[in-house]
């Protein structure tokens, strides 16, 4: 159990009103959680302090070799005033998996949850309640040793910041267009693809810029070895409904194990839909789109929730999906996941945790 020291802000910021569009990741609340680590001492000095810039040595290892881990989860306000987290245990488990892969010291899961709850409770008034909004929670750890040699750092900072958000994509629940990348790859088996760390996201930027310039929201990655099998989209996992079966790439060591991905698989199975986690080749996707058996495509992620895909482009071919609308399974998943998250429907999967 952490003994969290609290220093409240003396200059609270105005909380965004109902008409603020809450563009993803642009507004931050009044407080943040911070805890430090030193080799031999462990994690120490847990505190909630006013949200403010931090001071680091220019030689801090995170700036040079990217030793860092981050997570993303959300808090919601229910109509009866409760604050709910969605499956925080899954994010905490994944954070420690990332930490192990990146040689960052693990954080006790109970302390991690206590820290999330404490900082969310502190800035509870910032949780937006309009449809499609939530309080995005961003925990992260950075390596802080002032050292230019390559080795794991001996000191770290664990922080949690909070951001009231609306939809991740400007499209909202309207379908996004996705470009299947055939030039670069995001990750390879044995690399860091299944860890949540900045390196995987910076690797995606050149392709994302190229796709944006052509009017596409994101890229869909192919595997780094055969350059043939579907992996994931930059900020989401991907699902297809082909001929009545829900299909998603099997976790293979280079795909991020998404919490929303896991939740969608569980819900589809609960509803009796056949779900296959397996290798899916880009040829199979092209074939299904051409033959008319591709019924739906959607992405899943904490930030993106459920995001229908209306068009896929591979090389010079553009495949239109579901007449550019949202399909029935993606819609039902969206309603059910957000319904559970916001307490509007019964949490029959036992996924929410009250703050
Ligand atoms: C999330 O869905 O929480 C993510 O971390 C994706 C992101 C890079 C915005």
Automatic annotation (TrEMBL):
Keyword Membrane tagged: no
UniProtKB keywords: Amino-acid biosynthesis, Aminotransferase, Branched-chain amino acid biosynthesis, Pyridoxal phosphate, Transferase
Catalysed reactions, as listed in the record: L-leucine + 2-oxoglutarate = 4-methyl-2-oxopentanoate + L-glutamate; L-isoleucine + 2-oxoglutarate = (S)-3-methyl-2-oxopentanoate + L-glutamate; L-valine + 2-oxoglutarate = 3-methyl-2-oxobutanoate + L-glutamate
Cofactor: pyridoxal 5'-phosphate
EC top class named in words: transferase
Gene3D superfamilies according to UniProt: 3.30.470.10, D-amino Acid Aminotransferase, subunit A, domain 2
EC number: 2.6.1.42
NCBIfam families named in the record: ilvE_II (TIGR01123), PRK13357.1 (NF009897)
Identification of the protein by name: Branched-chain-amino-acid aminotransferase
